[in-house]
Design brief:
This protein is an alpha+beta fold. The protein is built from 2 helices and 5 strands; from the N terminus they run H-E-E-E-H-E-E. A 5-stranded antiparallel beta sheet has the order 1-2-3-5-4, covered by helices on one side. A hairpin with a 7-residue loop joins strand 2 and strand 3. The termini are far apart. The structure holds guanosine-5'-monophosphate and zinc ion (ZN). The site of guanosine-5'-monophosphate has 14 residues, from strand 2.
């Protein structure tokens, strides 16, 4: 996956404002934030989307969620609340084909999805 933009961020080939990093995951600010706090958390290893995870990835996915919760607290949006979002595939609105968890907060975020 030579061209994957988030693999490049993980490998520091493209700059991003990283907020957390360990051997397995990295969290960085979204380049086009939709709320005062908008962070993306990704595994460093390329996985295309939630549709591609296997049972072996369960711990890795748990780490993404756990670290999102810690960042929410550090960034001051724990009390007010926040949204965690995985988009999956085209109907899900996923644009970057490297799995990422959005942490969105810092303002009221009412559901954009309404009953049909
Ligand atoms: P998706 O629609 O795939 O769930 O979300 C992709 C997100 O990645 C978008 O919110 C977009 O602003 C963000 N994004 C795309 N390219 C870059 C980039 O090069 N750097 C950073 N920091 N965010 C990016
Ligand atoms: Zn990738």
């Amino acid at each position: 996956m030579e061209e994957c933009i988030f693999c490049k961020i993980a490998k520091k080939e493209i700059n991003a404002e990283a907020l957390f990093e360990d051997d397995d995951i990295i969290a960085f600010r979204d380049i086009k934030p939709i709320a005062p706090i908008h962070v993306l958390l990704i595994p460093k290893r390329h996985i295309g989307s939630v549709a591609e995870i296997s049972e072996d990835d369960a711990l890795l996915m748990g780490k993404l969620i756990f670290q999102a919760k810690r960042l929410a607290r550090e960034l001051g949006t724990e009390e007010g609340g926040y949204k965690l979002l995985f988009r999956v595939g085209s109907d899900g609105g996923q644009e970057v084909p490297h799995i990422h968890l959005h942490l969105i907060g810092g303002a009221p975020l009412f559901e954009e999805i309404r009953p049909i």
